[in-house]
Amino acid sequence: MFQQYQCRIYVTLRPSVLDPAGTAIQSGLQQLGYHEVEQVRIGKYIELKLRAANEEIARQNLDQICDQLLANTVIENYRFELTPVEQGVVLS
Fold first, then answer.
1. What is the pLDDT of residues 17-70, one digit of tens each?
2. Which candidate, 2, 3, 10, places its Cα nearest to that of 83?
């Protein structure tokens, strides 16, 4: 029997990689008067549902999905959260 998991994936640029989009947003914020903003980094947030026999297999599959498609691991880091779904409701 398979368990369904709600997956939240966060992909961010590695700290050593320049972020021109983040720099542009920071500049725009400062032009709007938000001078207290010191650094902006842009990333991706992805949600998906995944079926797996257990949480360990779900984690392994999600790690492969992120590594192979969702993140460019040369310049990006990723992390994810798994939440079991029961009867169509996400558990906290």
1. 999 999 999 999 999 999 999 999 999 999 999 999 999 999 999 999 999 999
2. 3
Residue 83 carries which side chain, given as an amino acid letter?
A: T
Residues 89/34, Cβ–Cβ less than 8 Å: no
pTM, two decimals, is 0.86
Integer CA distances (angstroms), 21 to 39, 43, 65, 85, 89, in order: 11, 10, 25, 35, 36
Out of 3.30.1280.10, 3.30.70.141, 1.10.3720.10, 3.30.565.10, the CATH code matching 3-90 is: 3.30.1280.10
Contact 9, 80 (CB under 8 A): yes
